[in-house]
């Protein structure tokens, strides 16, 4: 099966610092792919490079087998690929109403029928039309992230890039947002690339995942392998231990 | 055992244009030399409870309690001078994000020394030596070098360790940790918790650990208080959490995706109005 989106030998550098070092991934259409690793491992950079937000120094990114220009992404690309950012407190314009926020992508892409689409998008993320004329400071963190998701979904993309979509949220709200993301993926047959430092979240959401460390992919495995503990890298094992919570030394002995 | 801290019917409210917001509504608990966890969602009043004990409630807030007693001192009626002498030296607080809570224009070492010299009459040389020893105690390698670094020059995990060093240098008896690891990486989180656990055990401190992560708290603390909408809905021994009675506690426990459980969709909290009553 041909990959919907793939990166081949991708390198991103900021001056002398290699943020991504020869990374290759491929994600099939309709698949949900996870990227895990600690801060600074390059997982967000990979996502940003795909979205055209990081300077590509080498390698290539392909959408449906066609190589994308390293410097410039056209509108057609953004029509198909949308991104949801980590912090809903920072990613929504503080002086725009929800209505205005959702108009923006429609205006950029020249999509008509805004009225109906906005109402549908709000409905889809479980907020309803009463939220339409609110400002983002009148919303809770979970509601804001729903708006960010609605903004990405409103132009009906095929691929969603999710950069830690729930790490700024409470555990109880996280569950709601993860359920929403799963629901829309099922309904619209979307392809996800999801970055998270939480192995529980990634294995819940994704079928396959890549473990990253200092700009490289150190291990590729399926969620099933991870859960069953079929891990070869010590680094991944470390992440596993960390995700299980605190264990007091005495209790181990 | 005589409790070190007694909180009885603590209330914190904020007057706003749209009416009185009651952040904490009648919280009562006692704390000995133990690890107590306070868990709840954003807005449940857990941080305001911690801040009220520390004396960091904003000036415009209304605070009342039938008892707020720390080791014989009534915190609510104590004059500002007494509270100042308690704060930092006997009660200390670790804040969430080292990026925002450390002074950006002061070296880490100087900030630690400042805390120490505020509360104890020590010379410069001794203060420096003790600060470096404290940095070593929180497992910072090359403490002498880190002493002269500014907060932006260190990683989040190291910044948080520096903050723990700063809070522990005056030897407090009660430590309030408000989401001390939420801003850190999963792998670093455990290092920081391990250090905190060791120091609290060695020094026989009382610890109040505030977090929204019920699993983390239950693995770290002896006893857990669960808060919802400004009230305590359940108090339970950490080892007993599996038998939690309140649906809110059960919901918090179940809503986390964990390795090896396949639940689609995840159970979400069905918030009942009577929980807040």
UniProtKB/TrEMBL annotation, chain A:
Pfam families: ABC_tran
Membrane topology of this protein: Peripheral membrane protein
Transmembrane segments: none
EC nos: 7.4.2.10
Signal sequence, renumbered to the chain: none
Family annotation (SMART domains): AAA
Gene3D superfamilies: P-loop containing nucleotide triphosphate hydrolases (3.40.50.300)
Residue ranges constituting the ABC transporter domain according to the UniProt record: 5-239
A single MF term (Gene Ontology): ATP binding
Keywords: ATP-binding, Cell inner membrane, Cell membrane, Membrane, Nucleotide-binding, Translocase, Transport
Catalytic reaction list: glutathione(out) + ATP + H2O = glutathione(in) + ADP + phosphate + H(+)
Enzyme category, top tier: translocase
Cellular compartments annotated: Cell inner membrane; Membrane
Gene Ontology biological-process annotations: transmembrane transport
CC per GO annotation: plasma membrane
Keyword Heme: no
Primary localization class, coarse: membrane
Family: Belongs to the ABC transporter superfamily. Glutathione importer (TC 3.A.1.5.11) family.
Role played: Part of the ABC transporter complex GsiABCD involved in glutathione import. Responsible for energy coupling to the transport system.
Subunit structure of this chain's protein: The complex is composed of two ATP-binding proteins (GsiA), two transmembrane proteins (GsiC and GsiD) and a solute-binding protein (GsiB).
Protein name: Glutathione import ATP-binding protein GsiA
Species this chain originates from: Rhizobium giardinii
From TrEMBL, chain B:
SUPFAM superfamilies per the UniProt record, alphabetical: P-loop containing nucleoside triphosphate hydrolases (SSF52540)
Residues of the signal peptide: none
Name of a matching Pfam family: ABC_tran
Matches recorded under InterPro entries: AAA+_ATPase, ABC_Ni/Peptide_Import, ABC_transporter-like_ATP-bd, P-loop_NTPase
An annotated GO BP: transmembrane transport
Cell location: Cell inner membrane
Record flagged with keyword Nucleotide-binding: yes
One GO term describing the cellular component: plasma membrane
GO molecular function: ATP binding; ATP hydrolysis activity
Domain ABC transporter positions: 5-254
The entry's keywords: ATP-binding, Cell membrane, Membrane, Nucleotide-binding, Transport
Superkingdom to which the source organism belongs: Bacteria
Topology with respect to the bilayer: Peripheral membrane protein
Chief subcellular location: membrane
PROSITE patterns: ABC_TRANSPORTER_2
Similarity field: Belongs to the ABC transporter superfamily.
Protein name, per record: Peptide/nickel transport system ATP-binding protein
Lineage, top ranks: Bacteria, Pseudomonadati, Pseudomonadota, Alphaproteobacteria, Hyphomicrobiales
